[in-house]
Amino acid sequence: MSDDRRQAVLRAIVEGYVATSEPVGSKALAARNGLAVSPATIRNDMAALEDEGLITQPHTSAGRIPTDKGYRAFVDHLTAASLPEPQRRAISTFLADAADLNDVVERSVRLLSQITRQVAVVQYPSLREAAVRRVELVRIGLDRALVVVVSADARVEQHTVALGDAPSDDAFERIARELNEQAVGQRPAALAEALEAWAARSGQVAWAPVVADAVVTAARGGTVERVVFAGTSHLAGGGFEPDAMGAVLDALEEQVVLLRLLHEMAADSSDVTVRIGAETHADSLRSTSLVASAYGPGSLSLVGALGPTRMDYPGTMAAVRAVARYLSKAVEA
Questions:
Q1: How many Å apart are CA 135 and CA 214, to the nearest integer?
Q2: Count of CB atoms within 10 A of residue 35's CB?
Q3: CA triple 224-301-264, angle to 5 deg
Q4: Quick one: which of 37, 117, 142, 152 has the most CB atoms within 10 Å?
Q5: pLDDT, tens only, 202-247
Q6: Angle formed at CA 71 by CA 324 and CA 61, multiple of 5 degrees
């Protein structure tokens, strides 16, 4: 049996089952997919695929449906598809008018859900890895100041510091200017080194280390462990059993399982990462697949689409890839 033909049969079964939600038989494959072989030959190929655990027969005399392993083999052989130009333009236009980070995330999750007809999820970017966009030093008393750090992903953190003495206005303004010179564009690790050296300069004001520590603390800010999602109504049309759909909804609401899965997927270096069924390692998500791609500073946050294992993988992967790219541009702008 030809490996190429076997892969073609598997692809045809996956595509047929995704399109119709009905098991796919050998006669239908021979008639519709241009395999140029007889139904008997296709049945032999199907038997071999079944022996490998790639397809299964849900009941006697039925056609075949893909297993999780079969979907994985199908996805691993996919070439990167591009989203149609009209949809790419729509994404660019829709995200271009976003006012801030929250608006960008909300727009992205709604748009991805509309394109894929799946549940779209966006993990908020981690401030811990974002570069500094601006530092503001605001005097709030003779010997106290407010340190405000605006990150590249539009988050704002602030800390109050005691200066220990009452600096002159000129000294205060000089320190505010130097802080921006040292901090803007720096990520937290490099920022800490730069400000430590700055505070240790000969003749530097005594309160420079206090302000430097406050800037670094504000820049690190704390990882934002939050996911927003849209399109849960699509679960109803996804072919889930009622119990399975309830478990998926619970996982989305609680977020713990979903965040763990996203963290695991963030470690993958692939352009688009896919977890299928049992690969999620979560009973509540065993009937689902999650397609995700990294975006933003450090590429540690993910945007993705979650739906049934019987999903349009090529189309979903292309949509997720496109939204991640535009989301990165919006977040880093």
A1: 11
A2: 18
A3: 100
A4: 152
A5: 999 999 999 999 998 888 775 556 789 999 998 887 777 777 888 8
A6: 145
Check pLDDT > 80 for residue 125.
no
Q: Vertex 253, ends 249 and 256: CA angle to 5°?
A: 110
Decide the pairing of beta strands 132-141 and 301-308: unpaired
Task: Give dist(CA 248, CA 65) in Å, integer.
Answer: 22
Could you tell me if residue 165 is left (phi over 0), alpha (psi between -120 and 50 degrees) or otherwise beta? beta
Domains and CATH numbers, the chain: 3-76 (1.10.10.10), 85-126+224-332 (3.30.450.40), 129-220 (3.30.390.10)
Question: Is the whole model's pTM more than 0.85, yes or no?
Answer: no
Length of the chain in terms of residues written = 333
Query: Edge to edge, what strands does the sheet with 156-162 contain?
Result: 132-141, 144-151, 156-162
Beta strands 156-162; 119-123: pairing state: unpaired
Query: Per DSSP, what are the bridge partners of residue 146?
Result: 138, 160
Q: How far is CA 22 from CA 6, 18, 278, 283, in A?
A: 20, 8, 22, 24
Note whether 134 and 184 are within 8 A (CB).
yes
Q: Which residue(s) pair with 148 in the sheet? A: 136, 158
DSSP 205-216: -TTHHHHHHHHH
